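Encode chain A's predicted structure.
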Amino acid sequence: MSVSLPDPRPGSGGSAGQRFSALVWSLLHVPIFLALFAPGIEAAVRATPGAYRALLWPTFLPQATLIAALAFALGLPFSLWPRAYRFAAPAAAALVTGGLALDARIYGSVGLHLNGFFFRFLLQPNALREAGVPISDVVLFLAEAFAFLAVDVAAGAWFIRRFAAPRRRAWVLAVGLVLLSAAERVYGGVLTYFGGPSIFAASTVLPLQIPVRMYSFSEAIFGKRAMKDPFVGTDASKRLPAGVAPEAFRLARKPDVLFIAAESLPADHLDEKTMPRLWRRAQEGALFTRHYAGASSTNYTLFT
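Encoded structure for chain A:
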């Protein structure tokens, strides 16, 4: 008769134990995620009404934990091979962190996250030069990213093996994080109903968040509430005054004016080589070399 005893050595928990420690390792990256987007979070909170700022702060932590849970899910297929999983799981967390670092740089510069337009732009000739990004900055960023990836994977592999917990199930914690994120989206939707569009905009600071509107649900619970129009009051209105029909306006003189609204057009493209006809037309009138805008987002203004 033989009796087998459990191996007391650290990391002997197999795939099940490693999955739990891998999830914990991904969650340890949450402070990094929040730090990367700290300027955007601070600006979003500052833009909300003062009475709602303290209520808005708790929404960012569940959003960051959801991103960590997604990073954990990326490495799950490798959990079938425990030795490979010790490196694949932290590699997934490191790659997600590197992608967020790039996204945070872009979001801090233009207020937009990584999207299809950005990648199409990179495929164009001289894209970085036209965007004003020195190649030295790109090399430095890549060097920092590779250094972080190497250190993060090495530390993560040690952590996963050292703190493997065979009796703890990772899926229980993972499901709890998903439910917490779902509760945050419901809470954020109701908070938007009371606080206005600025709180809704704050939910888009961190990527991979689904903006949820719950106006109908909130009206059924709390009753109808007059929403503040961001285009009235001290802000510029896009609408004509109430009661004035467009045909009521009469211009005594109709000058020859050509008005062009261009989206994402570099200023140096308006030249004799790129746009010769428009350039010749511009020489017959006034040429303004600066642009002006009433807001920093095209949702609220047009650059002119």
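The radius of gyration is 26 Å.
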